[in-house]
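Review session, final week

We close the course with one last complete record, chosen because it touches almost every idea we covered. It is Transglutaminase-like domain-containing protein, a protein from Candidatus Blautia faecavium with 207 residues. Go through it on your own first, then we will talk.
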Amino acid sequence: MKGTRVKGWRKINNKYYYFNSQYVLQRNKIVGTKASGYYYVDSTGIRITAPAVKKAVAFVTAHSKNSQTPRQRLRYCFDALCKYPYRTYDSSIPKANRLPSYAEYMFTNHGGNCYCYASAMAYIAKVLGFESRVAAGGVTAYAGRQLSPHGWCEIKIGSVWKMCDCSMQNAHKNENLYLIERGRYPFRLRCDRIFNLTAKNGKIVWK
């Protein structure tokens, strides 16, 4: 801002940026206040207002506290999302450009299929500052049965990608399917496709 120290929201070249109380530009996190509203700013510091992102921010603020660490908030949100009931939606393996609609369906209707859980969890992790992606393949919890189409979220913790399988967690409450490595997953699993979620320059991209 031409050498002037600023705090709060500032519009620069038609993009909104947020500076904290120490005048530092905030990146890759949820920012704002209860009065002005909470928003996600990406790795370049630009506010993103895509519908699925806004709904993810609203979910996070409703189910966790600002005083918690990102890891703590992630766990609270995972537990909250797993309480949503499984509902039949579009059971076909999604294309990348459909994933936002799956997340929006889950956040709006408080229920959905495995791809809805996975997409919503990926957005939750993203607005909390984590790298996230959706995996699609097959799964079965029963010996001798064929694998059924399945989708789940993966989140990068340190250098390791770990699974957050909300829909299977909902169905198998005695298992721990939160931040579990694929090699430790208790059911037969096959991964066919990975959809990476990136947030940069004010845009969300799935590919």
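Two points worth writing down before the exam:
The chain is about 30% helix and 30% strand.
The radius of gyration is 18 Å.
Good luck, everyone.
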